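Need PCNA_N domain-containing protein's 3D structure for a figure. Predict it.
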Amino acid sequence: MPFLLHALDYGSRCRLCELATPGEVYDLQIAAPQLSGLQPIQATVHISHDTTIAFMNKNGALCAAFKHEPAPNLLDLNNDKLFRVTKTLQIEKFDSKHCAQLIFNKFGLEPEKLRFIRCDLTSKFLHDLSAKAKSDIRNISIIEA
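Structure prediction for PCNA_N domain-containing protein:
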């Protein structure tokens, strides 16, 4: 059931932004840009690297890196930034217990290409990704290496 953001007082809207993930805050701000307590519109960090890698580490936490030779550069996800991926998003080591929301919390998806490596994908995961992608994805690769 939808909830009217207008029904929340200013303090409650501010608190909602504090509790939400960067991706959720951005979506709220785009949905209701005129409401005080939801401004300013969150700035996004555009990732201009050819490949951004999102993966699950051994502790089950989401990590990300830019693909560089000889080793990837880790991206700091412990902040309130929302990262925009516009080239290739490579998703690694996701399995059926991981939900796509983990990615949406930190990334705005506008990729040209999606690459899945060592993933156990579910139809729900793929559906959620396609629903949140803000651009047409031209190429999808699934690699079981």
